[in-house]
């Protein structure tokens, strides 16, 4: 197991996605709202090194934002 302690994994949690023209993005200021293709009840997508591995949901408890894994989707082989 000591070998696994040295492996780095990039974890990304995606709330949703959208496509917008770059000139719109460059005009955005602080507080701008970007509409995503998901709503508040859709599961989050959790990626490890750009590979979808799980789905989850947001939880806020005592001021801490947490992601709870609700479904494993990555399968080896």
From TrEMBL:
Its main location: membrane. PANTHER family: FLAGELLAR MOTOR SWITCH PROTEIN FLIN (PTHR43484:SF1), PTHR43484. One of its GO terms (molecular function) is cytoskeletal motor activity. It is found in: Cell membrane. Belongs to the FliN/MopA/SpaO family. GO terms for biological process: bacterial-type flagellum-dependent cell motility; chemotaxis. This is Flagellar motor switch protein FliN. Keywords: Cell membrane, Cell projection, Chemotaxis, Cilium, Flagellar rotation, Flagellum, Membrane.
